[in-house]
Amino acid sequence: GAVVSQHPSRVICKSGTSVKIECRSLDFQATTMFWYRQFPKQSLMLMATSNEGSKATYEQGVEKDKFLINHASLTLSTLTVTSAHPEDSSFYICSARISGNTIYFGEGSWLTVV
Amino acid sequence: KQEVTQIPAALSVPEGENLVLNCSFTDSAIYNLQWFRQDPGKGLTSLLLIQSSQREQTSGRLNASLDKSSGRSTLYIAASQPGDSATYLCAVNYSGAGSYQLTFGKGTKLSVIP
Asked: pLDDT per residue over A35-91, tens digit each?
């Protein structure tokens, strides 16, 4: 079974609204989680690194005020897309690092902004 | 800027055939390289992880090689099966231990024809 759970798997929202995606580590604590975005026929691109109890580290070009990341506990990180636009429509996927080289990816979330 | 390239973008083979997927990266100063499998609309499943000090890793019908000096890795799949049909992603960790940020290629979409 999955060790990292993402919810929702698919979401449609109206332009201008906000949508939250959750990433949960099951049966383990993840001090570090990562959020990626994948546009059609493109690579997965790292958006930000989420550390429990501290501010996320965003990659260059990713607007931290638009993509709000909260890692309030050792098993949950959330990504909130604020004031969503159609160009934010994408596949968002998280990963959680247990220790060393061991990481697990969630199943991803398809966001469509209409 | 580090880049990861995967060739071919798509590959179709008859069942039972052996095949090789290619991955190249621009900076040889990597910490490790990982091959993933992604099924449509699904998350990523880690297949093989090669540390920078290793030359290959094997798991069942899969064999991954790493040549840091030439910036290349290959994923060899023996006796392909229809269930192997998926997109295969190559990802490189440039950031070193404790970071685990991955740079992904665009993937190779494999179709194994029964």
From this structure: 999 988 888 999 999 888 888 999 999 999 999 999 888 899 999 999 999 999 999
Chain A residues within 8 A of B25 when measuring between CB atoms: none
Decide if B107 and A101 are in contact by the 8 Å CB cutoff.
Answer: no
- Both tokens assigned to B56: 């290959």
Q: What is the pLDDT of residues B15-40, one digit of tens each?
A: 999 999 999 999 888 888 999 999 88
Contact state of A46 with B101 under an 8 Å Cβ cutoff? yes
The answer to whether B104 touches B44, Cβ cutoff 8 Å, is no
What type of residue sits at position B34? Q
Contacts of B97 in chain A (CB under 8 A): 100
Grouping H, G, I as helix, E, B as strand and the rest as coil, residue A26 is: coil
Return mean pLDDT, chain B.
91
d(CA B38, CA B47): 10
- Contact (Cβ atoms closer than 8 angstroms) between residue A85 and residue A113: yes
Contact A105 B4 (CB under 8 A): no
A41/B100 CB distance under 8 A: no
